[in-house]
Design a protein that fits this description.
Oligomer: single chain
Order of helices and strands: HHHH
Radius of gyration: 18 Å
Structural class: mainly alpha
Number of strands: 0
Length: 140
């Protein structure tokens, strides 16, 4: 069996590290999508859903930190840093948004939540749009 040439279809497949990152980003999107639903149900008068919103915030934040670890693996193994930089921006916004929610600062919590969901969906689309491949080291 001949090795894959750089332009072949086999060489353009996402690596296992890339698949792990895709899976974590996908889980993150699923988790964060529930947050506006729980908040909306709460605003309709179902006060128990605030507890669901709080538990969802814990899940979203935890998955975000797992995504940081996966993004570090992509950076180290695949030599692509954009997933790490994008992940850090999303996780930083989520962390600020989390604490704004705890403090009841809805003027910050709600718009930052909308921006975070949008940013994560954009990252999801970018991750699934093309294969996550290892970049070759540049000669110095």
């Amino acid at each position: 069996m001949a090795p894959s040439s750089p332009g072949s279809a086999a060489a353009r497949r996402t690596t296992p590290t890339g698949w792990v990152f895709r899976a974590v980003v996908s889980a993150h999107v699923v988790a964060i999508t529930g947050q506006p639903v729980f908040a909306g149900v709460y605003l309709t008068g179902d006060f128990d859903s605030l507890r669901w919103h709080a538990m969802g915030a814990d899940v979203v934040t935890s998955v975000g930190y797992v995504q940081v670890i996966a993004a570090i693996a992509v950076w180290v193994r695949l030599r692509q840093r954009w997933p790490f930089l994008g992940t850090m921006a999303v996780v930083a916004a989520e962390t600020v948004q989390y604490f704004a929610g705890l403090e009841g600062a809805l003027w910050l919590h709600i718009p930052l939540g909308v921006m975070t969901v949008v940013a994560l969906v954009v990252q999801f689309l970018a991750v699934w749009r093309q294969p996550l491949l290892r970049r070759e080291a540049r000669d110095a």
